[in-house]
């Protein structure tokens, strides 16, 4: 049987823009999802080589009583130290990229969602056929981030500033969904883009 390659839709956007809601929507439609955040959790599970390397580099204090990585403590550590963040990325990024590539190769639907928060910053958009950006107004983004993560204003702004500027992200997009309104408005746009992707010609 001849296999028609799956169209890969790179899904990205700034923090607190609604990427998870979008991914869940596509998954409910039966669309295959390759999610960088999920893969990032998988590669640091107990018994995985990455966790051993993290312990060797950063110490056993990052490991919780059940043997799992204390992700919040790890985030706090690297957030305050660019050198440590670079070292952590050198451990995780090759493993994450390899596992995501393996998952993408297994996709068999008409299209699949490749959900990567730093899709454009990391250059992983080159693995996608189209880039879908979930956009949100800056004031709405800040309000959602402060409410969701119980973070301070300075911490929230630092997280936003570390990402690609909104204008550059939108310029790199093939498709943009604006998510500053209601959930119903967001879902309506997702329904429309899903219908459109199903009409795209095979690769």
Question: What's the SSE blueprint?
Answer:
Layout: E1 7-13, H1 19-28, E2 32-35, H2 36-42, H3 49-58, H4 71-79, H5 82-106, E3 111-115, E4 130-135, H6 138-149, H7 153-161, H8 166-171, E5 175-178, H9 183-199
Parallel strand pairs: 1-3, 1-4, 2-3, 4-5
As a whole number of angstroms, the C-alpha radius of gyration is: 18 Å
Going by helix content, strand content and strand pairing, the class is alpha/beta
In terms of quaternary structure, the protein is single chain
Q: Catalogue the unreliable spans.
A: none
The tally of beta strands, per DSSP, is: 5
Distance between the termini: 17 Å
Beta-strand content estimate: 5-15%
What is the H/E order?
Answer: EHEHHHHEEHHHEH
Under CATH at level 1, the class of the largest domain stands as: Alpha Beta
Shape estimate: globular
The profile of the biggest β sheet is: 5 strands, parallel
How many domains would you count in the coordinates? 2
Helix content: 40-55%
**Number of helical runs?**
9
Question: Which superfamily, in CATH terms, is the homologous superfamily of the largest domain?
Answer: P-loop containing nucleotide triphosphate hydrolases
CATH architecture of the largest domain: 3-Layer(aba) Sandwich
* Major sheet strand order: 2-3-1-4-5
In short:
52% of the residues lie in helices and 13% in strands.
Task: Describe this entry's structure for a reader.
The chain is α/β, with parallel strands linked by helices and 203 residues long. The protein has two domains: 1-31 and 109-196, P-loop containing nucleotide triphosphate hydrolases (Rossmann fold, 3-Layer(aba) Sandwich), CATH 3.40.50.300; 37-108. Helix content is 52%, strand content 13%. Strands 2-3-1-4-5 form a five-stranded parallel sheet, sandwiched between helices. The longest helix is centred in the middle third of the chain and has 25 residues, at 82-106. The two termini are 17 Å apart. The model has no long low-confidence stretch (mean pLDDT 91).
